[in-house]
Amino acid sequence: MSKDTEMDLETQVYMLESHMDGMIARAQKNEEMLKRFQDLEMRLLSLNSLCELVVNIHDEAKLVFNLDSLSLVLADENDEIRLFIAEDGFQSEDYRSVILLSKVGLFKATLGLSQRILLGDAKKLLVKEFWPADTRIPHTVAIIPLIRRGVYLGCLVFGSDDETRFQADMATYFLDRLGKVLSVCMENTLNYEQLRRSSLFDTLTGVNNRRFFEQRMDEEILRSLRTGDSLSCLFIDIDFFKKVNDSFGHQVGDMALRHVAELLRSQLRSNDILARYGGEEFVAILPTAAEKKGVEVAERMRNVIAKSVLQVAEGKQLQITISIGVSTFVVEQSGVSKAIDKAVLIEVADKALYAAKNAGRNMVISGGEVKSVATSKRQSVSKG
Predict the structure, then answer these.
(1) Which domain holds residue 82?
(2) Which stretch of DSSP H or E encloses residue 231?
(3) What total number of domains does the chain contain?
């Protein structure tokens, strides 16, 4: 065998080995990619919270798919998603790439009905509504439709500064699968949030219901024991509400309940809890609020409602007042304090409310402090 032939063979072997090394490297890379994708998929499928789902896909997808940028665009025609994630503490200013779009028809107009992933030049494919404002647009994008049972839930947009990263002829197995998994997760978490909300919220007024209130009251009492902070409970009743129903009908009565709930909520901090206890009665929990603070908040509530006017049918106006009873849980400063039954705190506030009713209504009365071992007898009165 000639030297030239030997060199040719050596060159071919070297090229073959290099090719094999490249194939092995790509296989290892694909295997790592698959592992990361499977881990992401399992995390997404395990979530019940819509807020957690949104945060996870926002934070993890960039790492798993080695992206320069992304946006998650969700169909939110009635602000339902905005409400759900806000209740779980979602801060939109921290996640500008999460876009809640009320123009749900834009998904169909842009992406069509084929459910096909769009790949290529961002300037040609990307509509402005699918990308956060005042943010640099990438060179290439992959727009992944999120569709479930024929309904657009949104889309996920992957961005890359590499002009060759997302091309129309590239394989899309991982992207297709991610779109299907995320669509299922979106449907499941939306159903869960709707069920959770219906079980913990009052459908008429939009505030929490009694079940939620009782759960949180136990939690807040235990929190007070840990921190040593006081905790105030407000028991609120609409004055002469039966006359409202008798004079104007139950439809106006429902309007009055929503009106009162909205004004009560406007006087509370983000960490306070407002709930409809039943009928025309509402309750509020004020964490870290001493008796004086509880009475001040109650007085603000009483005042803002007394000054408000509810417009009803045929140009008639309805003036509403409320009465409020206040109780305050105080943790003993020395020794180990024991938890009290929430019923004790509610009962003291309820008795103070009854006293306010008997004293003429449109009034705030405090039943005093409820300590971990005893209840004080002093009362304070605030009248408008």
Answers:
(1) 47-198
(2) strand 231-238
(3) 2
